[in-house]
Write a structure and sequence with these properties.
By secondary structure, the chain is mainly beta. It contains 1 helix and 4 strands; from the N terminus they run E-E-H-E-E.
């Protein structure tokens, strides 16, 4: 079973697309690093995974349970 699963997450701010179809899975006991240049959407993705921001589309699941909202 996957501990954290992000499926097709999208985030838009008006006409600006910040995240477009991000999908990843983190099994129990593993860690994942997110790297990229300034403005690439790293903080927006982490805000969505942590529940601080609701994505425009897609799902976040923790231990199989949908925690997107």
């Amino acid at each position: 079973m996957t501990q954290l699963q992000v499926e097709d997450v999208r985030q838009q701010f008006g006409a600006l697309t910040v995240l477009n179809g991000i999908t990843l899975a983190v099994p129990p006991g593993q860690a994942l690093g997110v790297v990229g240049p300034n403005g690439a959407g790293k903080t927006t993705l982490l805000d969505i995974v942590a529940g601080g921001r609701r994505p425009t589309g897609g799902q976040v699941r923790l231990a199989g349970q949908d925690v997107t909202t």
